[in-house]
């Protein structure tokens, strides 16, 4: 203890002997202690409580409250305060008891040497200080331990929480892993599977457990694909959507897309991990799209695109090997009419049947394609080295097609007859590409159509010019009306007495470059482009103007009936009857003299609408005739339902009525049935006396044809009619009664 602390220590001395108190007091003060005195135990305890001395000296023997009592008080109230008992030598037992009770030290009276006192005071103060210091240190230690313990506890809690989180996230990833639809996999650098997700069972039908440890390589259908995947992984570190064929549990190949990464550590270990996905459905969809892009959805035949591809290939090969090939362009005659009249579902079925018939005619290496509504193409590749032989073979195929297609086709309740027009072109010619070959085929096909349909024509170089004209035609046709290039010709109709009884208006186009163009060539173009509507209106207007003119002329009696051809497109206009009525009113033409010629197809199209419109015309007094009768697919019975006036027997029947017995029978049936229904019959295309005789003897009473007159421009026609009225000299219909006999 240093001087200062020693001096500041307060010492309480309790003794009933004043001398002792004073001697202690004086002595200890000399050493810097503060000394307080109490003369008995009671006062000592009070002073102890009020002054809190650092050390107590107490005499054991005192009256009333003795030293042991003071000792007991101090020990129990302040055990850290050193207390030294002072005792007479005769009462050593007291000292022993005091030490038992908790006295720190003792001194025996009388004190010979007061330095004993000083020594005891110092020693016990030191001990007290050490005890206190020790206790403080102890307490500090305890605090430290407590703090550490708390820290540890917190750290532990934190660790537990982290652990929990890890467990949760592990659980989460495991459940993701287990519910993956794609397959997660992981292989070591030897390619052995270390991990694979359970989805492998739904993807490729393997058990996960059986796959672990096996080689990924063994599941590849194409080993070289595995190698190239590895190469890429090594080069780029990863692959994305790498398509491979994997073998499934039943050994079937399944297209899959692999996305994987290659991981190599510094110590040379590593792995490959990633996902793959079964892309069977995607592949199928792609294949379907690819298929659809190259095929016609109705017939499943190759479409124009695929045809051009194959044709290009065939051209290339032909040039290399000196082979020749042929292309046949097949267009169905009058298909549009069937489609427009019987409805698209019948039309579609018909096209499918045609497709089947075409396929049946060909070798496997030939291609049949559908490149448009009713346009089919047959590609005969590598036919031979010799042009003549190639041409013969192509023609043979074309004839076979023509024959096959001409057999009747039954669809629903309809028996349909279809004929094709076929254009053939041989290739290679010069430097033409696939597109040019197709155009040549097209040109030849139009030639076949122009030659009267149901015909085969070869492409000849000069034809192309004409084909180009056709393209130009559409452009020119738009201007034809405004430039006054359309003309109406008239072909007279003759009655049983040989007199003119009416006429048919037939359209012509006077083209400034190409001369007179017949309707067969431009009406289809007009229908395709919609120009048929203004053109049809012009025809009606012009015909009605002439009806008015002729009614007021000497031709009035002869021209009782003027027939105008009406395109299905015109007739289907909802306001067509109104349009006709307006034209009649505007031109002041007598409705009773106007006839409308409709084709069979238009009539069947929509019977209810047709009947409605026909009724409106009947009310107006306009006559309706069915044109080209007999060529169609319709039954005669439905005609009863229609308010018709006239049937026109198609010229194809009239043409060989004298040679073909079945045609003759058809004509007779038509005539007798018509008379049964109260319909008039006109035979068209009458070219010979024999035909006329037969028709007349069968009961037909009106005729039209080159035998009497060709269609003529208005002026010539008027001259022709007025001539016939005045001369009555050109026909003698029943000139030879024996002929009648012959045909009965
Ligand atoms: P269509 O209604 O069958 O007309 C009869 C066709 O037969 C006419 O041909 C006529 O010139 C021809 N012809 C007349 N008598 C004979 C004959 O004895 N022998 C032969 N071989 N042919 C004969 P054209 O004028 O070339 O008309 C062809 C078709 O064009 C017509 O066939 C008709 O469907 C259509 N057409 C004509 N004018 C019009 C019109 O103004 N509007 C519409 N929409 N079509 C028309
Ligand atoms: Ca006609
Ligand atoms: Ca006709």
From TrEMBL:
It catalyses: 3',3'-c-di-GMP + H2O = 5'-phosphoguanylyl(3'->5')guanosine + H(+). Its EC number is 3.1.4.52. PROSITE patterns: EAL, GGDEF, PAC, PAS, RESPONSE_REGULATORY. Gene3D superfamilies: 3.30.70.270, 3.40.50.2300, EAL domain, L1 transposable element, trimerization domain, PAS domain. It comes from Sedimenticola thiotaurini. The keyword Phosphoprotein applies. The keyword Phosphoprotein applies. Residues 470-725 form the EAL domain. The modification 4-aspartylphosphate is found at residue 59. Its cofactor is Mg(2+). CDD domains: EAL (cd01948), GGDEF (cd01949), PAS (cd00130), REC_RssB-like (cd17555). This is cyclic-guanylate-specific phosphodiesterase. Residues 169-235 form the PAS domain.
């Amino acid at each position: 203890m240093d001087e200062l602390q020693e001096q500041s220590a307060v010492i309480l001395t309790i003794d009933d002997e004043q001398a002792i108190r004073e001697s202690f007091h004086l002595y200890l003060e000399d050493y810097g202690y503060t000394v307080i005195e109490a003369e008995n135990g009671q006062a000592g305890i009070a002073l102890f409580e009020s002054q809190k001395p650092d050390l107590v000296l107490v005499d054991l023997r005192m009256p009333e409250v003795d030293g042991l009592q003071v000792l007991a008080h101090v020990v129990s109230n302040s055990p850290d305060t050193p207390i030294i008992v002072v005792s007479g030598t005769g009462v050593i037992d007291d000292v022993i008891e005091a030490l038992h009770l908790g006295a720190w030290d003792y001194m025996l009276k009388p004190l010979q040497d007061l330095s004993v006192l000083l020594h005891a005071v110092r020693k016990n103060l030191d001990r007290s200080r050490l005890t206190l210091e020790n206790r403080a240190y102890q307490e500090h230690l305890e605090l430290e331990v407590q703090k550490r313990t708390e820290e540890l506890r917190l750290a532990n809690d934190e660790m537990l929480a982290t652990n929990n989180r890890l467990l949760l996230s592990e659980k989460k990833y495991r459940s993701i892993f287990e519910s993956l639809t794609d397959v997660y996999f992981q292989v070591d650098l030897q390619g052995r599977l270390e991990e694979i997700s359970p989805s492998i069972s739904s993807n490729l039908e393997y058990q996960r457990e059986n796959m672990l440890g096996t080689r990924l390589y063994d599941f590849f259908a194409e080993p070289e694909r595995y190698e190239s995947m590895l190469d890429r992984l090594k080069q780029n570190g990863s692959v994305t959507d790498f398509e491979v064929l994997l073998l499934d549990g039943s050994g079937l190949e399944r297209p899959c897309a692999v996305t994987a990464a290659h991981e190599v550590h510094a110590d040379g270990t590593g792995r490959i991990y990633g996902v793959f996905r079964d892309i069977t459905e995607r592949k199928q969809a792609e294949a379907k799209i690819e298929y659809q892009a190259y095929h016609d959805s109705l017939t499943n035949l190759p479409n124009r695109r695929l045809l051009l591809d194959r044709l290009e290939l065939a051209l290339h090969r032909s040039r290399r090997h000196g082979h020749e090939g042929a292309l046949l362009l097949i267009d169905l005659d009058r298909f549009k009419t069937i489609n427009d009249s019987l409805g698209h579902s019948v039309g579609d079925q018909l096209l499918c049947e045609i497709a089947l018939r075409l396929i049946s005619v060909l070798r496997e290496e030939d291609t049949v394609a559908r490149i448009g509504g009713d346009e089919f193409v047959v590609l005969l590749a590598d036919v031979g080295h010799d042009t003549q032989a190639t041409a013969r073979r192509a023609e043979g195929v074309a004839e076979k097609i023509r024959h096959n297609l001409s057999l009747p086709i039954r669809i629903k309740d309809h028996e349909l007859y279809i004929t094709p027009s076929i254009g053939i072109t041989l290739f290679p010619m010069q430097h033409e590409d696939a597109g040019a070959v197709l155009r040549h085929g097209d040109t030849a096909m139009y030639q076949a159509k122009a030659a009267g349909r149901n015909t085969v024509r070869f492409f000849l170089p000069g034809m192309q010019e004409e084909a180009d004209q056709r393209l130009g035609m559409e452009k020119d046709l738009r201007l034809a009306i405004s430039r006054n290039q359309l003309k109406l010709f008239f072909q007279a109709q003759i009655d049983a007495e040989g007199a003119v009884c009416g006429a048919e208006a037939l359209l012509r186009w006077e083209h400034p470059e190409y001369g007179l163009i017949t309707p067969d060539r431009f009406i289809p173009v007009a229908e395709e482009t919609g120009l048929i509507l203004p053109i049809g209106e012009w025809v009606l207007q012009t015909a009605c103007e002439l009806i008015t003119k002729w009614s007021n002329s000497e031709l009035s009696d002869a021209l009782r009936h003027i027939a105008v051809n009406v395109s299905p497109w015109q007739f289907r206009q909802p306001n067509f009857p109104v349009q006709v009525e307006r034209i009649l009113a505007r031109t002041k033409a007598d409705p009773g003299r106007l006839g409308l010629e409709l084709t069979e197809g238009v009539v069947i199209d929509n019977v209810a609408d047709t009947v409605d419109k026909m009724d409106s015309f009947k009310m107006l007094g306009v006559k309706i005739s069915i044109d080209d009768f007999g060529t169609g697919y319709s039954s005669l019975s439905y005609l009863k339902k229609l308010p018709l006036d006239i049937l026109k027997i198609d010229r194809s029947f009239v043409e060989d009525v004298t040679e073909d017995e079945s045609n003759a029978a058809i004509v007779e049936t038509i005539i007798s049935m018509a008379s049964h229904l109260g319909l008039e019959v006109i035979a068209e295309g009458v070219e010979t006396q024999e035909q006329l005789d037969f028709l007349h003897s069968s009961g037909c009473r009106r005729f039209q044809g080159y035998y009497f007159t060709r269609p003529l421009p208005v002026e010539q026609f008027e001259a022709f009619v007025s001539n016939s009225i005045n001369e009555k000299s050109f026909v003698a219909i029943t000139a030879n009664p024996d002929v009648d006999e012959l045909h009965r």
